Amino acid sequence: MKVSLFITCLSEMFYPKVGRDVTEILERLGCDVVFPEGQVCCGQPAFNSGYRKEAAKAAKQMIRAFEEADYIVTPSGSCAAMFKEYPKLFADDEEWKVRAEAVAERTYEFTQFIVDVLGVEDVGAEFHAKAVYHTSCHMTRLLGEKEAPFKLLKNVKGLQLLPLKNAYDCCGFGGTFSVKMTAISEQMVDEKISHIEESGADVLIGADNGCLMNIGGRMSRLGKPIKVMHISEVLNHRH
Asked: Sheet of 203-206: strands edge to edge?
């Protein structure tokens, strides 16, 4: 099965290990992973800020880069959800709308692809820790994926997944929201961190690097010892 990896800006710039982990897991599961070099930003920051013209320019480049792909897989529920917005972005342009729909329907978030397309719930991972999982807003509310990460984490040997109070609350990132509404964002992430601490976990797991960067950055600034990991890092852990 040929899979085109949509790496995302944050993974490429700040979390390259996530790209490696995703690739290694998919290859172990029998996928042929390719990397379309024409990929750029998916346009979400511009789109969320109301700059539809600029977002459409980025979207067109991403459609060109991925429209020959059999499957498009990304380690970000947020960016996968943006691909699903492309047809709406080109609602008044029939040619690009059709091309956008073709790309959108072949796009999957990483855990979603493993569970729903490959039909795998146990990737053979082993990771001994007490952890909580952060359910990111875009992945659960926009993409609509709520189960796949938990199905995979349930089968990680040695992992004790603890309940997280108010798990579905936003962490305060929201892309440009955290920049424009800093004071509110800070209060939201502090509340999220307090619940993580209350759980007794020593690891925070998530499937969106934006959220993990926000929560992890704040915890680092506050001197909290909790480790932050993208779910691909956990699923690629072997002992």
From this structure: 157-161, 126-134, 203-206, 227-230
How far apart (Å, rounded) are the C-alpha atoms in residues 235 and 139? 18
Strands 2-5 and 32-34: parallel
Q: What is the pLDDT of residues 54-87, one digit of tens each?
A: 999 999 999 999 999 999 999 999 999 999 999 9
User: What is the amino acid identity at position 192?
Assistant: K
Specify which residues 159 forms β-bridges with. Answer: 129
d(CA 208, CA 35): 20
Residue with tokens 């962490």: 171
Residue 18 C-alpha from the chain's centroid? 10
Class of domain 121-235: alpha beta
Tokens of residue 23, six digits? 């690739």
Q: Residue 181: pLDDT band by 50, 70, 90 thresholds?
A: confident
Q: What angle do CA 99, 148, 157 make, to 5 degrees?
A: 140
Q: What share of the chain is helix, strand, coil (3-state, %, to 5)?
A: 50, 15, 35
Average pLDDT value for residue range 217-224: 96
